[in-house]
Amino acid sequence: MAAPRFTTDHEWVRLDGDLATVGISDYAQSQLGDVVYVELPEIGRRVEQGKEIAVVESVKAASDVYAPVSGEVVAVNTALAEDPAKVNADPMGEGWFLQLRLADPAELDGLMDEAAYRRFIEEQA
Amino acid sequence: MPAEHPALKRTPLYPLHRALGARMVAFAGYEMPVHYPAGILAEHLHTRSRAGLFDVSHMGQLRLGGADAGAALERLVPGDICGLPPLRVRYTLLLNEAGGIVDDLTVTRLDAQNLFLVVNAATAEADFDHLRARIDPKIAIERLADRALLALQGPLAAAVLARLAPEAVGLAFMGALEMPLAGQECLVTRSGYTGEDGFEISVPAKGAAALAERLLAEPDVAPAGLGARDSLRLEAGLCLYGQDIDATITPVEADLSWTIAARRRRTGGFPGEAVVLDQLAHGTRRKRVGIRPEGRAPARAGTPILDTDGVRIGQVTSGGFGPSLGAPIAMGYVEAAHAAAGSAVLLEVRGTARPGRVVPLPFVPHRYRRQPPARSAGGDGPAVG
Asked: Per the structure, how many domains does chain B have?
Protein backbone atom coordinates (compact mmCIF):
# COMPACT_ATOMS: atom_id res chain seq x y z
CA MET A 1 0.00 0.00 0.00
CA ALA A 2 1.34 3.43 -0.95
CA ALA A 3 2.11 6.22 1.52
CA PRO A 4 -0.85 8.51 2.25
CA ARG A 5 -1.31 11.82 0.52
CA PHE A 6 -3.19 14.78 1.92
CA THR A 7 -5.46 17.61 0.76
CA THR A 8 -5.56 21.21 1.94
CA ASP A 9 -9.00 20.34 3.39
CA HIS A 10 -7.31 17.79 5.69
CA GLU A 11 -8.48 14.57 4.04
CA TRP A 12 -6.01 11.74 3.46
CA VAL A 13 -6.05 9.17 0.68
CA ARG A 14 -4.05 5.95 0.48
CA LEU A 15 -3.81 3.99 -2.74
CA ASP A 16 -3.82 0.18 -3.01
CA GLY A 17 -3.93 -0.77 -6.69
CA ASP A 18 -6.81 1.33 -8.04
CA LEU A 19 -8.59 1.45 -4.68
CA ALA A 20 -8.25 4.72 -2.78
CA THR A 21 -9.06 4.64 0.94
CA VAL A 22 -10.14 8.04 2.30
CA GLY A 23 -10.37 9.57 5.77
CA ILE A 24 -9.63 12.77 7.67
CA SER A 25 -6.25 13.63 9.14
CA ASP A 26 -5.22 13.52 12.77
CA TYR A 27 -5.01 17.32 12.67
CA ALA A 28 -8.60 17.48 11.37
CA GLN A 29 -9.97 15.22 14.08
CA SER A 30 -8.12 17.19 16.77
CA GLN A 31 -9.62 20.43 15.47
CA LEU A 32 -13.13 18.97 15.26
CA GLY A 33 -13.11 17.43 18.72
CA ASP A 34 -15.29 14.49 19.72
CA VAL A 35 -16.90 13.03 16.60
CA VAL A 36 -20.49 11.95 17.28
CA TYR A 37 -21.79 11.19 13.78
CA VAL A 38 -20.45 10.43 10.32
CA GLU A 39 -22.67 10.50 7.25
CA LEU A 40 -21.28 8.30 4.49
CA PRO A 41 -22.30 8.08 0.81
CA GLU A 42 -24.10 5.20 -0.89
CA ILE A 43 -22.06 2.51 -2.58
CA GLY A 44 -21.88 3.16 -6.31
CA ARG A 45 -22.00 6.94 -6.06
CA ARG A 46 -19.57 8.70 -8.39
CA VAL A 47 -17.83 11.78 -7.12
CA GLU A 48 -15.45 14.34 -8.57
CA GLN A 49 -12.28 15.47 -6.85
CA GLY A 50 -12.98 18.31 -4.41
CA LYS A 51 -16.74 17.65 -4.16
CA GLU A 52 -18.60 16.81 -0.93
CA ILE A 53 -18.57 13.07 -0.25
CA ALA A 54 -19.31 12.75 3.50
CA VAL A 55 -20.22 14.77 6.59
CA VAL A 56 -18.50 14.53 9.96
CA GLU A 57 -20.23 15.95 13.03
CA SER A 58 -18.66 16.85 16.35
CA VAL A 59 -20.64 17.86 19.44
CA LYS A 60 -20.33 21.41 18.21
CA ALA A 61 -20.77 21.43 14.45
CA ALA A 62 -21.12 19.58 11.15
CA SER A 63 -18.28 19.69 8.61
CA ASP A 64 -18.17 18.56 4.99
CA VAL A 65 -15.59 16.04 3.85
CA TYR A 66 -14.43 16.42 0.23
CA ALA A 67 -13.29 13.70 -2.15
CA PRO A 68 -9.50 13.88 -2.44
CA VAL A 69 -9.72 12.16 -5.83
CA SER A 70 -12.46 11.40 -8.35
CA GLY A 71 -13.95 7.94 -8.42
CA GLU A 72 -16.78 5.56 -7.58
CA VAL A 73 -17.60 4.66 -3.98
CA VAL A 74 -16.99 0.91 -3.56
CA ALA A 75 -17.00 0.63 0.27
CA VAL A 76 -17.84 2.68 3.37
CA ASN A 77 -16.74 2.13 6.96
CA THR A 78 -20.00 0.90 8.46
CA ALA A 79 -18.35 0.55 11.90
CA LEU A 80 -18.47 4.35 12.22
CA ALA A 81 -22.26 4.22 12.52
CA GLU A 82 -21.97 2.49 15.90
CA ASP A 83 -18.67 3.98 16.99
CA PRO A 84 -17.93 7.37 15.39
CA ALA A 85 -15.27 7.99 18.08
CA LYS A 86 -12.97 5.72 16.02
CA VAL A 87 -12.35 8.84 13.92
CA ASN A 88 -10.75 10.49 16.96
CA ALA A 89 -8.98 7.41 18.24
CA ASP A 90 -7.46 6.17 14.97
CA PRO A 91 -8.11 8.63 12.11
CA MET A 92 -5.60 7.06 9.70
CA GLY A 93 -6.60 3.47 10.54
CA GLU A 94 -9.91 2.19 11.93
CA GLY A 95 -11.41 5.64 11.49
CA TRP A 96 -11.30 5.49 7.67
CA PHE A 97 -14.41 6.81 5.92
CA LEU A 98 -14.74 5.23 2.48
CA GLN A 99 -13.05 3.58 -0.46
CA LEU A 100 -13.15 4.89 -4.04
CA ARG A 101 -12.24 3.15 -7.28
CA LEU A 102 -9.82 5.71 -8.62
CA ALA A 103 -10.82 7.39 -11.89
CA ASP A 104 -7.63 9.32 -12.66
CA PRO A 105 -4.33 8.41 -10.95
CA ALA A 106 -2.81 11.72 -12.12
CA GLU A 107 -5.00 13.53 -9.56
CA LEU A 108 -2.81 12.15 -6.78
CA ASP A 109 0.13 14.17 -8.07
CA GLY A 110 -1.55 17.38 -6.95
CA LEU A 111 -1.80 16.21 -3.33
CA MET A 112 0.73 16.65 -0.53
CA ASP A 113 2.90 13.93 0.91
CA GLU A 114 3.11 13.66 4.70
CA ALA A 115 6.10 16.02 5.06
CA ALA A 116 4.50 18.68 2.87
CA TYR A 117 1.21 18.33 4.75
CA ARG A 118 2.99 18.77 8.08
CA ARG A 119 4.55 22.00 6.79
CA PHE A 120 1.13 23.11 5.52
CA ILE A 121 -0.39 22.67 8.99
CA GLU A 122 2.45 24.58 10.62
CA GLU A 123 1.91 27.47 8.20
CA GLN A 124 -1.81 27.44 9.06
CA ALA A 125 -1.22 27.62 12.79
CA MET B 1 -9.14 29.41 15.30
CA PRO B 2 -6.19 29.75 17.61
CA ALA B 3 -5.04 33.00 15.96
CA GLU B 4 -5.07 36.17 18.03
CA HIS B 5 -8.08 38.47 17.78
CA PRO B 6 -6.80 41.92 18.76
CA ALA B 7 -10.27 43.43 18.48
CA LEU B 8 -11.80 40.95 20.92
CA LYS B 9 -12.15 41.61 24.63
CA ARG B 10 -10.64 39.24 27.15
CA THR B 11 -11.84 38.24 30.59
CA PRO B 12 -9.56 38.33 33.65
CA LEU B 13 -9.16 34.55 33.26
CA TYR B 14 -7.67 34.78 29.75
CA PRO B 15 -4.10 33.92 30.85
CA LEU B 16 -5.43 30.98 32.87
CA HIS B 17 -7.39 29.65 29.88
CA ARG B 18 -4.22 29.81 27.81
CA ALA B 19 -2.17 28.11 30.53
CA LEU B 20 -4.78 25.34 30.71
CA GLY B 21 -4.47 24.76 26.97
CA ALA B 22 -7.94 25.99 26.03
CA ARG B 23 -9.02 26.37 22.44
CA MET B 24 -10.18 29.98 22.22
CA VAL B 25 -12.96 31.27 19.97
CA ALA B 26 -14.69 34.59 19.37
CA PHE B 27 -18.00 34.74 21.23
CA ALA B 28 -20.11 37.87 21.74
CA GLY B 29 -17.08 40.10 21.28
CA TYR B 30 -14.91 38.14 23.69
CA GLU B 31 -12.14 35.63 23.20
CA MET B 32 -13.51 32.69 25.16
CA PRO B 33 -12.54 29.05 25.77
CA VAL B 34 -14.74 26.69 23.74
CA HIS B 35 -13.05 23.69 25.32
CA TYR B 36 -9.92 22.60 27.14
CA PRO B 37 -7.72 19.62 26.20
CA ALA B 38 -10.23 17.16 27.73
CA GLY B 39 -12.80 18.14 25.07
CA ILE B 40 -16.48 19.01 25.14
CA LEU B 41 -17.75 15.46 25.80
CA ALA B 42 -15.49 14.91 28.81
CA GLU B 43 -16.13 18.40 30.21
CA HIS B 44 -19.87 17.90 29.84
CA LEU B 45 -19.88 14.50 31.54
CA HIS B 46 -17.54 15.70 34.30
CA THR B 47 -19.97 18.53 35.07
CA ARG B 48 -22.88 16.06 35.26
CA SER B 49 -20.97 13.65 37.52
CA ARG B 50 -18.68 15.93 39.58
CA ALA B 51 -18.17 19.68 39.07
CA GLY B 52 -17.21 21.92 36.14
CA LEU B 53 -15.83 25.44 36.41
CA PHE B 54 -16.92 27.90 33.70
CA ASP B 55 -15.70 31.42 33.00
CA VAL B 56 -18.83 33.43 32.23
CA SER B 57 -17.24 36.82 32.81
CA HIS B 58 -18.37 37.93 29.35
CA MET B 59 -21.91 38.23 30.72
CA GLY B 60 -23.07 41.70 31.72
CA GLN B 61 -23.34 42.49 35.42
CA LEU B 62 -25.41 45.53 36.40
CA ARG B 63 -26.61 47.17 39.60
CA LEU B 64 -29.89 49.04 39.79
CA GLY B 65 -30.07 51.26 42.85
CA GLY B 66 -32.59 53.59 44.36
CA ALA B 67 -35.94 53.67 46.08
CA ASP B 68 -38.48 51.75 43.98
CA ALA B 69 -35.82 50.15 41.76
CA GLY B 70 -37.99 47.02 41.77
CA ALA B 71 -41.10 48.89 40.66
CA ALA B 72 -39.05 50.65 37.98
CA LEU B 73 -37.78 47.34 36.59
CA GLU B 74 -41.26 45.83 36.72
CA ARG B 75 -42.34 48.29 34.02
CA LEU B 76 -39.97 46.42 31.65
CA VAL B 77 -40.40 42.76 32.70
CA PRO B 78 -43.39 40.47 33.47
CA GLY B 79 -41.81 39.02 36.62
CA ASP B 80 -42.56 39.84 40.23
CA ILE B 81 -39.61 42.01 41.23
CA CYS B 82 -41.34 44.07 43.97
CA GLY B 83 -42.16 40.82 45.76
CA LEU B 84 -38.66 39.42 45.41
CA PRO B 85 -37.28 39.01 48.94
CA PRO B 86 -33.76 40.11 49.81
CA LEU B 87 -31.09 37.60 48.74
CA ARG B 88 -33.36 35.81 46.33
CA VAL B 89 -32.76 35.45 42.57
CA ARG B 90 -35.39 35.49 39.84
CA TYR B 91 -35.17 34.65 36.13
CA THR B 92 -37.07 37.18 34.06
CA LEU B 93 -37.39 38.71 30.60
CA LEU B 94 -37.06 42.19 29.17
CA LEU B 95 -39.97 42.56 26.75
CA ASN B 96 -40.70 44.95 23.87
CA GLU B 97 -44.08 46.50 23.05
CA ALA B 98 -45.00 43.48 20.90
CA GLY B 99 -44.27 41.12 23.78
CA GLY B 100 -41.01 39.99 22.12
CA ILE B 101 -38.06 39.07 24.29
CA VAL B 102 -35.35 41.77 24.33
CA ASP B 103 -33.20 39.68 26.67
CA ASP B 104 -33.41 37.09 29.41
CA LEU B 105 -31.69 37.84 32.68
CA THR B 106 -31.48 37.06 36.37
CA VAL B 107 -32.36 39.63 39.00
CA THR B 108 -31.05 39.30 42.55
CA ARG B 109 -32.41 41.53 45.28
CA LEU B 110 -29.46 42.65 47.39
CA ASP B 111 -31.53 44.79 49.77
CA ALA B 112 -34.53 47.12 49.76
CA GLN B 113 -32.81 49.56 47.39
CA ASN B 114 -30.48 47.50 45.22
CA LEU B 115 -30.91 44.90 42.51
CA PHE B 116 -28.11 42.91 40.86
CA LEU B 117 -28.72 41.92 37.23
CA VAL B 118 -26.88 39.43 35.04
CA VAL B 119 -27.62 39.85 31.34
CA ASN B 120 -26.32 38.19 28.17
CA ALA B 121 -22.94 39.23 26.81
CA ALA B 122 -24.13 39.99 23.27
CA THR B 123 -26.99 42.16 24.52
CA ALA B 124 -25.30 43.83 27.50
CA GLU B 125 -24.70 47.20 25.81
CA ALA B 126 -28.18 47.29 24.30
CA ASP B 127 -29.74 46.25 27.61
CA PHE B 128 -27.98 49.06 29.42
CA ASP B 129 -29.31 51.57 26.87
CA HIS B 130 -32.77 49.95 26.98
CA LEU B 131 -32.89 50.25 30.77
CA ARG B 132 -31.39 53.75 30.89
CA ALA B 133 -33.86 55.06 28.31
CA ARG B 134 -36.88 53.69 30.15
CA ILE B 135 -36.08 53.78 33.83
CA ASP B 136 -36.53 56.84 36.04
CA PRO B 137 -33.27 58.85 35.96
CA LYS B 138 -33.36 58.87 39.77
CA ILE B 139 -32.56 55.13 39.69
CA ALA B 140 -28.83 54.49 39.32
CA ILE B 141 -27.83 51.93 36.68
CA GLU B 142 -24.24 50.87 36.98
CA ARG B 143 -22.26 48.45 34.82
CA LEU B 144 -20.07 46.36 37.10
CA ALA B 145 -17.23 46.14 34.61
CA ASP B 146 -14.70 45.44 37.35
CA ARG B 147 -16.28 42.11 38.24
CA ALA B 148 -15.77 38.66 36.75
CA LEU B 149 -18.33 35.83 36.86
CA LEU B 150 -17.53 32.16 37.46
CA ALA B 151 -19.98 29.26 37.39
CA LEU B 152 -19.26 26.16 39.46
CA GLN B 153 -21.76 23.52 38.37
CA GLY B 154 -22.38 19.89 39.16
CA PRO B 155 -23.46 17.52 41.94
CA LEU B 156 -20.22 18.09 43.87
CA ALA B 157 -20.24 21.89 43.50
CA ALA B 158 -21.70 22.45 46.96
CA ALA B 159 -19.23 20.14 48.69
CA VAL B 160 -16.37 21.89 46.91
CA LEU B 161 -17.54 25.41 47.70
CA ALA B 162 -18.16 24.45 51.33
CA ARG B 163 -14.42 23.82 51.67
CA LEU B 164 -13.85 27.50 50.87
CA ALA B 165 -16.93 28.88 52.66
CA PRO B 166 -19.11 26.63 54.85
CA GLU B 167 -22.03 29.08 54.57
CA ALA B 168 -22.42 28.16 50.89
CA VAL B 169 -24.15 24.93 51.92
CA GLY B 170 -27.00 26.88 53.51
CA LEU B 171 -28.01 28.50 50.23
CA ALA B 172 -31.11 27.14 48.52
CA PHE B 173 -31.71 27.16 44.77
CA MET B 174 -32.11 30.78 43.60
CA GLY B 175 -30.75 32.11 46.87
CA ALA B 176 -27.90 34.61 47.13
CA LEU B 177 -25.28 35.41 49.73
CA GLU B 178 -22.23 37.61 49.97
CA MET B 179 -19.27 35.65 51.25
CA PRO B 180 -15.48 35.79 51.11
CA LEU B 181 -13.93 33.19 48.79
CA ALA B 182 -10.15 32.91 48.44
CA GLY B 183 -9.87 36.30 50.10
CA GLN B 184 -12.29 38.00 47.71
CA GLU B 185 -15.67 39.49 48.67
CA CYS B 186 -18.00 37.56 46.35
CA LEU B 187 -21.71 37.55 45.60
CA VAL B 188 -22.70 33.89 45.30
CA THR B 189 -26.02 32.70 43.90
CA ARG B 190 -27.16 29.09 43.86
CA SER B 191 -28.10 29.07 40.21
CA GLY B 192 -26.73 28.13 36.83
CA TYR B 193 -27.26 27.17 33.23
CA THR B 194 -26.60 23.43 33.23
CA GLY B 195 -29.59 21.87 35.00
CA GLU B 196 -27.26 20.77 37.79
CA ASP B 197 -26.95 22.08 41.32
CA GLY B 198 -24.32 24.78 41.38
CA PHE B 199 -23.31 28.36 41.93
CA GLU B 200 -22.60 31.52 40.02
CA ILE B 201 -19.94 33.63 41.68
CA SER B 202 -19.54 37.34 41.02
CA VAL B 203 -15.97 38.15 42.03
CA PRO B 204 -13.82 41.31 41.76
CA ALA B 205 -11.86 41.06 38.49
CA LYS B 206 -8.50 41.34 40.21
CA GLY B 207 -9.17 38.26 42.33
CA ALA B 208 -10.94 36.14 39.74
CA ALA B 209 -7.93 34.15 38.55
CA ALA B 210 -6.84 33.34 42.11
CA LEU B 211 -10.34 32.11 42.95
CA ALA B 212 -10.52 30.04 39.76
CA GLU B 213 -7.14 28.48 40.51
CA ARG B 214 -8.24 27.74 44.08
CA LEU B 215 -11.37 25.97 42.80
CA LEU B 216 -9.45 24.09 40.10
CA ALA B 217 -7.05 22.85 42.79
CA GLU B 218 -9.95 20.75 44.11
CA PRO B 219 -9.66 17.27 42.56
CA ASP B 220 -13.41 17.15 41.83
CA VAL B 221 -13.31 20.31 39.70
CA ALA B 222 -12.35 20.45 36.02
CA PRO B 223 -12.47 23.48 33.72
CA ALA B 224 -15.30 23.45 31.20
CA GLY B 225 -15.72 25.70 28.17
CA LEU B 226 -18.54 27.26 26.21
CA GLY B 227 -19.00 24.07 24.19
CA ALA B 228 -19.97 22.04 27.26
CA ARG B 229 -21.99 24.97 28.57
CA ASP B 230 -24.06 24.84 25.37
CA SER B 231 -24.60 21.07 25.37
CA LEU B 232 -25.44 21.11 29.11
CA ARG B 233 -28.01 23.89 28.78
CA LEU B 234 -29.56 22.21 25.74
CA GLU B 235 -29.99 18.93 27.66
CA ALA B 236 -31.51 21.01 30.48
CA GLY B 237 -34.00 22.54 28.01
CA LEU B 238 -32.77 26.06 28.72
CA CYS B 239 -33.01 28.79 26.09
CA LEU B 240 -30.02 30.50 24.50
CA TYR B 241 -30.81 34.13 23.75
CA GLY B 242 -30.46 35.03 20.09
CA GLN B 243 -31.03 31.42 19.11
CA ASP B 244 -34.09 30.00 20.93
CA ILE B 245 -35.57 33.33 21.97
CA ASP B 246 -35.33 36.80 20.46
CA ALA B 247 -37.26 40.03 19.95
CA THR B 248 -39.78 38.30 17.63
CA ILE B 249 -40.73 35.58 20.13
CA THR B 250 -42.99 36.02 23.14
CA PRO B 251 -42.64 34.30 26.53
CA VAL B 252 -45.79 32.25 25.87
CA GLU B 253 -44.48 30.97 22.54
CA ALA B 254 -41.15 30.17 24.20
CA ASP B 255 -42.87 28.07 26.89
CA LEU B 256 -41.66 30.58 29.47
CA SER B 257 -45.13 31.53 30.75
CA TRP B 258 -43.99 30.47 34.22
CA THR B 259 -41.93 33.67 34.33
CA ILE B 260 -45.09 35.77 34.13
CA ALA B 261 -46.02 36.28 37.76
CA ALA B 262 -49.64 35.79 38.92
CA ARG B 263 -49.84 39.37 40.15
CA ARG B 264 -48.54 40.69 36.84
CA ARG B 265 -51.17 38.68 34.96
CA ARG B 266 -53.85 40.45 37.02
CA THR B 267 -52.43 43.94 37.02
CA GLY B 268 -50.33 44.03 33.83
CA GLY B 269 -48.12 47.06 33.42
CA PHE B 270 -45.36 45.41 31.39
CA PRO B 271 -44.45 45.93 27.71
CA GLY B 272 -46.47 43.86 25.27
CA GLU B 273 -49.01 43.14 28.00
CA ALA B 274 -51.97 42.98 25.58
CA VAL B 275 -50.26 40.43 23.33
CA VAL B 276 -48.91 38.31 26.16
CA LEU B 277 -52.14 38.23 28.20
CA ASP B 278 -54.13 37.35 25.07
CA GLN B 279 -51.73 34.50 24.31
CA LEU B 280 -51.94 33.24 27.90
CA ALA B 281 -55.73 33.10 27.55
CA HIS B 282 -56.04 31.83 23.98
CA GLY B 283 -52.77 30.12 23.15
CA THR B 284 -50.23 30.77 20.41
CA ARG B 285 -49.77 29.58 16.85
CA ARG B 286 -46.29 28.24 17.55
CA LYS B 287 -44.63 26.81 20.62
CA ARG B 288 -41.13 25.87 21.69
CA VAL B 289 -40.74 22.09 22.11
CA GLY B 290 -38.07 19.47 22.62
CA ILE B 291 -37.41 16.97 19.83
CA ARG B 292 -35.60 13.63 19.83
CA PRO B 293 -34.35 12.71 16.35
CA GLU B 294 -34.30 8.97 15.63
CA GLY B 295 -30.89 7.55 14.81
CA ARG B 296 -27.65 9.38 15.41
CA ALA B 297 -27.71 12.31 12.98
CA PRO B 298 -27.94 15.63 14.83
CA ALA B 299 -30.50 18.18 13.60
CA ARG B 300 -28.75 21.54 13.98
CA ALA B 301 -30.22 25.02 14.34
CA GLY B 302 -32.05 25.96 11.16
CA THR B 303 -33.18 22.43 10.35
CA PRO B 304 -36.72 22.56 8.90
CA ILE B 305 -39.33 20.62 10.91
CA LEU B 306 -42.07 18.93 8.83
CA ASP B 307 -45.22 17.07 9.72
CA THR B 308 -45.50 13.42 8.65
CA ASP B 309 -47.04 14.58 5.35
CA GLY B 310 -43.94 16.63 4.63
CA VAL B 311 -45.56 20.01 5.28
CA ARG B 312 -43.28 22.47 7.00
CA ILE B 313 -44.43 23.21 10.57
CA GLY B 314 -41.40 24.87 12.11
CA GLN B 315 -37.67 25.03 12.57
CA VAL B 316 -34.99 23.80 14.96
CA THR B 317 -33.42 26.64 16.96
CA SER B 318 -30.85 24.61 18.94
CA GLY B 319 -29.74 21.12 18.07
CA GLY B 320 -26.80 18.86 18.57
CA PHE B 321 -25.63 15.84 20.44
CA GLY B 322 -26.58 15.25 24.08
CA PRO B 323 -23.52 13.66 25.68
CA SER B 324 -25.47 12.47 28.75
CA LEU B 325 -28.00 10.74 26.51
CA GLY B 326 -25.53 9.57 23.86
CA ALA B 327 -28.02 10.70 21.25
CA PRO B 328 -28.98 13.77 19.25
CA ILE B 329 -31.38 16.29 20.82
CA ALA B 330 -33.00 19.46 19.53
CA MET B 331 -35.40 22.20 20.45
CA GLY B 332 -37.35 24.40 18.15
CA TYR B 333 -40.71 25.94 17.32
CA VAL B 334 -43.61 24.02 15.81
CA GLU B 335 -47.22 24.91 15.06
CA ALA B 336 -49.36 24.41 18.16
CA ALA B 337 -51.22 21.43 16.67
CA HIS B 338 -47.93 19.49 16.64
CA ALA B 339 -46.58 20.65 19.99
CA ALA B 340 -47.94 17.84 22.17
CA ALA B 341 -45.38 15.39 23.53
CA GLY B 342 -45.35 12.29 21.35
CA SER B 343 -46.16 14.10 18.10
CA ALA B 344 -44.30 12.56 15.17
CA VAL B 345 -42.31 14.99 13.05
CA LEU B 346 -39.75 14.89 10.25
CA LEU B 347 -36.43 16.72 10.38
CA GLU B 348 -34.98 17.76 7.06
CA VAL B 349 -31.24 17.24 7.46
CA ARG B 350 -29.20 17.86 4.30
CA GLY B 351 -32.22 17.26 2.11
CA THR B 352 -33.30 14.02 3.77
CA ALA B 353 -36.43 13.90 5.95
CA ARG B 354 -35.58 11.92 9.07
CA PRO B 355 -38.11 10.88 11.72
CA GLY B 356 -38.22 12.46 15.15
CA ARG B 357 -40.62 12.93 18.02
CA VAL B 358 -41.73 15.84 20.21
CA VAL B 359 -40.70 15.16 23.81
CA PRO B 360 -41.12 17.02 27.11
CA LEU B 361 -38.29 19.31 28.22
CA PRO B 362 -35.84 19.03 29.86
CA PHE B 363 -34.08 16.08 28.20
CA VAL B 364 -32.10 15.51 31.41
CA PRO B 365 -33.94 16.11 34.70
CA HIS B 366 -32.95 19.23 36.64
CA ARG B 367 -31.17 18.51 39.89
CA TYR B 368 -31.49 21.85 41.62
CA ARG B 369 -31.25 21.92 45.39
CA ARG B 370 -34.62 23.33 46.32
CA GLN B 371 -35.52 23.77 49.95
CA PRO B 372 -38.99 23.40 51.40
CA PRO B 373 -40.63 26.83 51.56
CA ALA B 374 -40.45 28.75 54.81
CA ARG B 375 -43.01 27.58 57.37
CA SER B 376 -44.92 30.86 57.25
CA ALA B 377 -47.53 30.82 54.49
CA GLY B 378 -47.13 32.49 51.16
CA GLY B 379 -45.44 31.85 47.87
CA ASP B 380 -41.77 32.25 47.28
CA GLY B 381 -40.71 33.38 50.72
CA PRO B 382 -37.15 33.80 51.86
CA ALA B 383 -35.67 30.33 51.89
CA VAL B 384 -32.09 31.23 52.72
CA GLY B 385 -30.58 29.80 55.83
From this structure: 2
